[in-house]
Amino acid sequence: MKKLLLLLLLFAASIHFIQAQPSPEEKLRAMGITLEAPPAPIANYVNAVRTGNLLFLAGKGPRNSDGSYITGKVGTELSIEKGYEAARLTAINQLSALKAEIGDLSKVRRIVKVLGMVNAPDDFTKHPAVINGFSDLMVEVFGEKGKHARSAVGMSSLPNGMAVEIEMIVELEEDH
User: CATH number of 22-172: 3.30.1330.40, 3.30.565.10, 3.50.30.30, 1.10.150.20?
Assistant: First the structure.
């Protein structure tokens, strides 16, 4: 009887722990991050395409709230730290696009894959250190669900001289 009571108490405690976890949006608020509506694409594409429970998000860059971008080549015009900040801002912009598409970030089952492109000179080799700005925020917001497969590569240029451009694939919870 005591063992059964102990099991019931442990079960109740685990349910409380699961329920006590803050939502992704609560975590963002606690970090002082506000998600703004993403701008509409300026060409013949869309911000996201869903197939089944996978959502493919178009590449986004480090767009500031005033519409300007963090620009420049990481490793010459920008430090690795500034590149990291640009990737983190890009993560916020991707989360804005994701929220606009699905309405509630709690519907995310997993961040599956990230492609991070860094505007860098030919001899630059620290691309992962830059894209960590994106990856670190995904883990801060989603915990284990935010850990993803990733590529971090260098580009000789990016649109409008952006420091980084990042796309991602997200798995969503099953529709009920």
Answer: 3.30.1330.40
pLDDT tier at 176 (50, 70, 90 boundaries)? very low
Q: Are strands 54-60 and 108-119 parallel, antiparallel or unpaired?
A: unpaired
Per-residue DSSP letter, 22: P
- Determine which helix (DSSP H) or strand (DSSP E) holds 164, and give its type and residue range: strand 164-172
DSSP per residue, 88-117: HHHHHHHHHHHHHHHS-GGGEEEEEEEEEE
Residues 70, 131 contacting (CB under 8 angstroms): no
Cα distances (angstroms) measured from residue 96 to each of 6, 33, 103, 104:
44, 10, 10, 11
Its pTM surpasses 0.85? yes
Task: Summarize the confidence of residues 73-100 as an average pLDDT.
Answer: 98
The C-alpha atoms of residue 113 and residue 39 are separated, in whole angstroms, by 23
